[in-house]
Amino acid sequence: MGDLLPRFKANHRPLTPVDFLDRAVEAFPNRTAVIWQGRSWSYAELGGIVAAMIDTLRAHGVGQGDVVAIMSSNRPEMLAAHYAIPALGAAVNALNTRLDPSVVEYILNHSEAKVVLTDPAGAEVAGPAAQQAGLACLVFAPDHGTADGLSLLDAPPVTQANFAEEVRDEFMPIAINYTSGTTGKPKGVLLNHRGAYLNSLGNVISLGFTSQSVYLWTLPMFHVNGWSHTWAVTAVGGVHVCLDKVVPADIFALIARHGVTHMACAPVVLYMLLNDPSKSLRAPSRPLRVASGGAAPTSALIAQMQTLGIEFIHLYGLTECFGPTTMRKISNEESGESSAAQARLLSRQGTRHITANLLRVVDPHGNDVPADGATLGEIVLRGNTVMSGYHKDAQATQKAFAGGVLHTGDLAVRHPDNQIEIRDRAKDLIISGGENISSLEVEEALHRHPAISLAAVVAAPDPKWGEIPCAFIEPHPGAELDATELSLFCREHLAHFKIPRRFVFTELPKTATGKIQKFALRETAKSVHPQETKA
Fold first, then answer.
1. Is the Cβ–Cβ distance between 457 and 439 less than 8 Å?
2. Inter-axis angle of helices 18-27 and 76-87, to 10 degrees?
3. Winning range, highest mean pLDDT, from 291-300, 336-345, 395-404, 485-494
4. Is the domain of 300 the same as that of 401?
5. DSSP assignment, residue 510?
6. Same domain, yes or no: 201 and 306
7. What's the burial of 464, exposed, middle or buried (CB within 10 Å: 0-12/13-18/19+)?
């Protein structure tokens, strides 16, 4: 028994989330799979869209080992691409819809994309970039009622599916996702079928997806393949409700109309919803779970969600680990705690995902920090849901994997109950006069002010202290604020040295996924005049 057990065709098949659609077509062909713009498609019909896309891509020479780029909003073809492209043995390169043509062109060349898919809106950027890269750009028809462009939505349904057959190895790339490139050229993160399969099942368990789940796509599918929800919802035969853009009124209407049970988004989207003057959402008719990540939610935000009867789940993850890798939600034992106490607990990142194999918080020497809720260390990861590496960048891969773990660059503490709590990104930590200041702590204090919609804090250079906190404030519409008022307010919640020395009142720059672009704010902070600025 010392040798490995034999592997036969009968007892081994590569793990791939493409198989989820094969099963869905077989098990519940007539069940609703996708809803978009007032029309629905069954799983048999979704399989038909996938089959038609496969035929189209194959006709353009796409096969094993290729890359297909796609720039699109959340629509049925974008979902179908997450099955059709891997079914050909190729990798999905989902492009951020806010990228400019020069960056898209760089990504197309660096990834060696074979062809580009796009919706009409994305064609304005993807089209010129594809032309410069010498690639065909296939534009989806504007909607399901026109014949212009690549029309796939009326493809005949399939009666059976075997889309997973071409996946020959579970370590083949299923996706190549490019990072934001805030410190240089974007890096291509290579994700494999095995990790996507496992992370999808982890999402099913952690978020409680079932055959009755109705998932609203408030999260862009291009963002780490929709945190693997593109595959997870299909795994249980749930419903994908596609949303073209984040408009609060549309979101409220879709939740009510379709009985939405799950959605995911960055906290900034939740702020938009809860602060929208036309807010019509009250207690939803069905239990609604909202998963959020990308930035730490404030306790005030969490309390507002709970008031509406929404179950909040805090996720943490990276592009390099297929999206979510930790989760925090209120347990049965904690459900009796006060709203404020629950909000404090939910602001933590929690414990590792059920399919994440190792998560540690370590000091600079690689030793575990004590579980005292105070000692700062870096989060490192290891396991099946960690990337294969950076595309054509061995040096960056080796640096990220130094010591046999993935270095996240996120600074956290571990509490006595082994829950982790991020205190800052390594690059976001402010060091003022030798003292460490957590930008997240300062932001949390600022978000307690009733007139503030969003706050972001970065380091500004200072000749005396080296760095000082600079706060960028987006007030609620019609609210009036000034720096003196906020400085006095912060004194009630922060140590004196942590109070921002400069305040800027402006609309905060955000990515397409709702993250605040702190790299842009850091550049602005270099030239901010220290005088008071009024809203």
1. yes
2. 110
3. 395-404
4. yes
5. B
6. no
7. exposed
